[in-house]
Amino acid sequence: MLGWVITCHDDRAQELQDRLEEKHGPLAQCRAVNFWRGLSTNMLSRMMCEALHQADSGDGVIFLTDTSGAAPYRVASLMSHKHSGCEVIAGVTYSLLEEMLAARESMSSAAFRDTIVSLGAPDVTSLWHQQQKNPPFVLKHDLYAY
């Protein structure tokens, strides 16, 4: 099963998890990390790292964030490069998470990413989709072998 780390500004992450659990019961491998005003990105990174390890069973983890480019998204993006099977999604809503809840058990992290982005378009994106728009920078002299 894919783990979920829901990370949003203020108490929105915990609110999303609480609403889902109120309707669907306790969610295994799901952690909420709230990013409060004044919290350092170092502390956010520590909290998200702990949540990642608690949510991961080896099948992958999906970071579900509220805003593309904001601190939770940036920290999740850095962490995803160090852990295989991690995806970073931005723009999540309660209804979208509820719709994707059952998919955690049967989809790969890449298939989950593509599905949630297509269902939530144009407001939902992923780190992978953003990277496809902006391929890595390559220096011209690196293209030529001497």
UniProtKB/TrEMBL annotation:
Gene Ontology, cellular component aspect: cytoplasm; membrane
Places the protein is found: Cytoplasm
Pfam families noted in UniProt: EIIA-man
UniProt-recorded Gene Ontology molecular function terms: kinase activity
Key words, A-Z: Cytoplasm, Kinase, Phosphotransferase system, Sugar transport, Transferase, Transport
Domain PTS EIIA type-4 as annotated: residue spans: 1-124
A biological process term (GO) from this entry: phosphoenolpyruvate-dependent sugar phosphotransferase system
Protein name: PTS EIIA type-4 domain-containing protein
Native source organism of the sequence: Citrobacter koseri (strain ATCC BAA-895 / CDC 4225-83 / SGSC4696)
